[in-house]
Amino acid sequence: MISANDLSPAELAALLHFHADAGVEWLLEEEAIDRFAEFEAMKAARRPAAQAQPQAPIAGEGPVARDGRTPPRPNGVARPAPAERAASGPQPAIPDGEAVQQARFVAESARSLSELKTAIEAFNGCNLKHSARSTIFASGDAESGIMVIGSAPGAEDDREGVPFSGKSGQLFDKMLAAIGLTRSSVLLTQVIPWRPPGNRAPSAAEMDICRPFIERQIALAEPKVILLLGNFSARFFFGENDTIHGLRGRWKEITAADCVIPAIASLHPQDLLTAPVNKRLAWNDLLAFQAKLKSLSLLRN
């Protein structure tokens, strides 16, 4: 096994980036520890001691006879309820339902995008925040009337603190340039503000908690048109379970607060890096998006 001391700074940095991309969040030990073997050894050590000792009465149950049975109680005397055992595994600090209510209150209280950004950064009701490095919030021109919404932050987004970073971000920049746009001329954001560990799909509870934040971003920015990138974001807003290939290229409407906004979905840049053959589909979607911008006089020549 190669020790970290034998690696050059460049090799060590590359190794750390590899682990981060793979979803590794913490480095705990230099050598692997067999926790299963430890647990079995612990059970084996405890078993003789447990067999040698008589069973102790449960607190509140009263005296125990020599044969181990609890004597009957007088009529009319109720047996006290046994103490509740602690639930196994870590419990969330805030129940999901309460966290959703708090998220709604926090989102509705914000009167500007800057206030909303501060509120989201201070919000601790979603477990995704505790494993993420950055809180990804809207960036770009909030006055442009054009909003682009991705799915959830990836590893590069989490490291850089901005949406659409890394190789997929470079391709995204080229996609915008092809229809006369730049990052600075649109408002970019993600459905989920924190990267799920290992880039897994957000759970239903996590989506419910984060929904008030993205809907409030839309309501405060008041875009005239929205481009959704990726399968997750299309399903999230359209409320359908079809794949991105079934949802892309068709204009639908998104409702945020009292605003009804036309939106079109397309493939995420990461999808195009994985399957470049789909670039022609994305190009057709971008042309439809460009035509809509021109019809709304939003495209600056």
UniProtKB/TrEMBL annotation:
Record-linked Gene3D superfamilies: Uracil-DNA glycosylase-like domain
This protein's name: Type-4 uracil-DNA glycosylase
Catalytic activity: Hydrolyzes single-stranded DNA or mismatched double-stranded DNA and polynucleotides, releasing free uracil
Residue span, Uracil-DNA glycosylase-like domain: 137-287
Membership in a protein family: Belongs to the uracil-DNA glycosylase (UDG) superfamily. Type 4 (UDGa) family.
TM helices/strands, residue ranges: none
Keyword terms: 4Fe-4S, DNA damage, DNA repair, Hydrolase, Iron, Iron-sulfur, Metal-binding
EC number assigned by the record: 3.2.2.27
InterPro entries: UDG_Type-4/5 (IPR051536), Ura-DNA_glyco_family4 (IPR005273), Uracil-DNA_glycosylase-like (IPR005122), Uracil-DNA_glycosylase-like_sf (IPR036895)
Enzyme class: hydrolase
KW 4Fe-4S (keyword) present: yes
